[in-house]
């Protein structure tokens, strides 16, 4: 409770409240101030509630707060029977009711602001059924519901955009980049169109290329589906194997176990649970109730200062000392029989404490085991989501590790072979490039020699020999080119022959694909129509259920509010009757119990207090002069005392002188 109040004070001292409270000032707030503070917090959540509660009736304030708390989905602590007490406490501004509400509101202010904002547009107005018979009202209500659904969708999209983390600058940058790419692609397509337009039958070739692309995409999708189905089949087989292994283990466990051992385990579990139910849990519950009672008592008391706490500590120490003295006296008065019993009592208490400790350890171990099982289940689900298969256990995991090791060694060997083949391929590729370069250079030299041979006149050869060499070179070059053409034609024929069955199979697959696509489209149309009908029925039923639930909640709230007001009025009426009975009663004792008598006494005491305060004021004002006057009178008194003493001394001296004179005269006469 103290943590709750401290949290409330910290939140109220921050923006936007800035109340500058501390624990003492907050605890000393009256009921009206607490209600105004609660109203200020509700006004921060929903600006419509930012009003002064002194300007409206208490019933209106309670109704307004209860309606907003119902919209915010606040659940008061306690059972259903405590709802009336909660409403009554909210009307009267009770601290045990207001403090939890403030703590709940200040914990989730931003979330509740959002909920209050949405409630302005999503709390459905209930229209009576007889009004909906009118077509105009029904159409307007339908438009209202459609607008509400549109608002929901727009709000969801807005929240998604807020949480997506995309800024407007990034979106504009992406749009600009996409527009540039679009312009480049358009230019590239135009250039390709210009290049293709010069080719004969370019439209037919484009259509064939488009069909080829579509068939390749279909082939890729079919291959992907095939691979996915293979993976699913593999995972299903793995799950089946694990289930079979688990079944075998369970069979073995059942075979090995005996009925006596199972019964013993069940008896131990029953004994432990019965101990928890009959001894441990009731004792803990009783201790919790007593601690709760004392805490509530402490909370109900006014705030204590440090001096009060010191006094309480001194009293506690004194009581502890008295308890120790009584225990020592009792120990001294024990007889031998009582001492034996005390030994048994000590042993019994030690055993009970050990039993409680072991029970707590067992309970903690069970809780730890359950938490570990939950964590293991979560990890298993995560692994299943990531890998698509369950986690292996025991021998399966060892077998899987051995299999991975063998695959790893096989992978390393193949990797070395691939590296060797790649190195050899690079060498051969380089050799091929060098040979191609030499071949091209030789061909160029031959062509140059063949072209320039007739015009060259060498002194050691006749002219006819140059012509003959040129003709031979041209013929050899022509023969080589014809051989290459024949080889290419033979390769094309072989490829056609090898592709003929594949093409036939592809045609059959195309026909099947067309049939399947037609069937899929028909099934999809049927599914969409059925789903749309079911969705519409579901939405209408959900709306009806939602409306009925809201109506039920509203009626229940009205009933509780009326019941609370009725109880308040009954209590007030009972108090008024008792007051009237006591005031009219002829018995003076009963009449003294009347509130009017107390009010009269209060007025008399207030008047007496007022007179005493005035008298105190006069005394304070005349205190200084009176003290001075008292001091002067004291000085005057001392002066008169001194004079009196001097006068007495003088009289005594004169009396002594007269006696002496009379004695001298008597002597002279004698």
TrEMBL record:
This is Intraflagellar transport protein 81 homolog. It comes from the Eukaryota. Keywords: Acetylation, Cell projection, Cilium, Cilium biogenesis/degradation, Coiled coil, Cytoplasm, Cytoskeleton, Differentiation, Phosphoprotein, Spermatogenesis. The lineage of its organism: Eukaryota, Metazoa, Chordata, Craniata, Vertebrata. The gene is Ift81. It is found in: Cytoplasm, Cytoskeleton, Cilium basal body. GO terms for molecular function: tubulin binding. PANTHER family: INTRAFLAGELLAR TRANSPORT PROTEIN 81 HOMOLOG. Residues 137-246, 309-382, 499-558 form a coiled coil. Component of the intraflagellar transport (IFT) complex B: together with IFT74, forms a tubulin-binding module that specifically mediates transport of tubulin within the cilium. Binds tubulin via its CH (calponin-homology)-like region. Required for ciliogenesis. Required for proper regulation of SHH signaling. Plays an important role during spermatogenesis by modulating the assembly and elongation of the sperm flagella. Its main location: cytoplasm.
């Amino acid at each position: 409770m103290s943590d709750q109040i401290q949290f409330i004070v910290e939140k109220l001292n921050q923006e936007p409240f800035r109340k500058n409270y501390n624990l003492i000032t907050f605890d000393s707030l009256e009921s009206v101030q607490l209600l105004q503070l609660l109203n200020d917090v509700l006004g921060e959540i929903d600006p419509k509630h930012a009003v002064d509660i002194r300007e409206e009736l208490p019933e209106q304030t309670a109704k307004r707060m209860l309606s907003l708390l119902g919209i915010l989905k606040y659940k008061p602590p306690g059972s259903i029977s405590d709802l009336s007490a909660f409403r009554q406490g909210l009307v009267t501004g009770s601290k045990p009711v207001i403090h939890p509400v403030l703590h709940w509101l200040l914990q989730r202010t931003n979330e509740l602001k959002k909920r209050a904002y949405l409630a302005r547009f999503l709390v459905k107005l209930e229209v009576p059924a007889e009004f909906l018979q009118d077509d105009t009202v029904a159409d307007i209500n339908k438009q209202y519901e459609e607008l509400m659904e549109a608002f929901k969708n727009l709000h969801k999209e807005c929240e998604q955009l807020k949480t997506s983390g995309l800024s407007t600058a990034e979106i504009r940058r992406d749009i600009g980049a996409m527009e540039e790419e679009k312009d480049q692609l358009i230019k590239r397509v135009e250039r390709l169109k210009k290049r293709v337009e010069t080719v004969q039958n370019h439209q037919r070739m484009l259509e064939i290329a488009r069909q080829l692309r579509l068939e390749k995409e279909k082939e890729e999708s079919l291959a992907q589906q095939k691979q996915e189905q293979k993976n699913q089949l593999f995972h299903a087989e793995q799950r089946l194997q694990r289930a079979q292994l688990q079944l075998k283990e369970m069979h073995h466990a059942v075979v090995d176990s005996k009925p006596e051992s199972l019964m013993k385990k069940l008896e131990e579990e029953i004994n432990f649970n019965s101990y928890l139910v009959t001894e441990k849990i009731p004792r803990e519950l009783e201790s919790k109730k007593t601690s709760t009672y004392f805490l509530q008592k402490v909370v109900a008391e006014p705030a204590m200062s440090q001096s009060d706490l010191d006094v309480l500590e001194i009293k506690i120490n004194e009581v502890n000392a008295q308890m120790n003295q009584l225990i020592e006296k009792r120990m001294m008065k024990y007889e031998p029989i009582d001492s034996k019993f005390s030994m048994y009592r000590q042993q019994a208490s030690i055993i009970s404490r050990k039993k409680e400790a072991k029970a707590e350890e067992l309970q903690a171990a069970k809780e730890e085991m359950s938490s570990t099982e939950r964590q293991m289940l979560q990890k298993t689900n995560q692994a299943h989501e990531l890998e698509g298969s369950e986690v292996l256990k025991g021998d399966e995991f060892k077998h899987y590790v051995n299999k991975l090791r063998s695959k790893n060694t096989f992978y390393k060997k193949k990797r070395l072979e691939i590296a060797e083949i790649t190195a050899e391929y690079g060498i051969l590729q380089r050799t091929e490039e060098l040979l191609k370069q030499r071949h091209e250079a030789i061909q160029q030299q031959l062509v140059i020699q063949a072209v320039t041979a007739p015009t060259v006149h060498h002194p050691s050869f006749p002219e006819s020999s140059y012509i003959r060499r040129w003709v031979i070179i041209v013929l050899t070059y022509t023969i080589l080119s014809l051989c290459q053409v024949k080889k290419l034609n033979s390769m094309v024929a072989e490829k056609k022959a090898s592709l003929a069955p594949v093409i036939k199979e592809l045609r059959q697959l195309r026909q099947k694909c067309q049939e399947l696509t037609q069937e899929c489209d028909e099934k999809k149309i049927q599914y969409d129509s059925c789903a749309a009908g079911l969705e519409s029925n579901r939405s209408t039923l959900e709306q009806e259920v939602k409306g009925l639930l809201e109506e039920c909640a509203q009626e229940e709230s009205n009933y509780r509010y009326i019941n609370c007001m009725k109880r308040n009025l009954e209590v007030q009426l009972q108090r008024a009757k008792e007051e009237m009975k006591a005031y009219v009663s002829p018995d003076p004792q009963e009449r003294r119990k009347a509130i009017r008598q107390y009010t009269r006494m209060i007025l008399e005491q207030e008047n007496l207090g007022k007179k005493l305060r005035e008298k105190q004021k006069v005394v304070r004002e005349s205190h200084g002069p009176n003290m001075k006057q008292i001091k002067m009178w004291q000085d005057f008194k001392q002066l008169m005392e001194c004079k009196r003493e001097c006068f007495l001394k003088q009289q005594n001296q004169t009396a002594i002188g007269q006696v002496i004179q009379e004695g001298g005269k008597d002597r002279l006469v004698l």
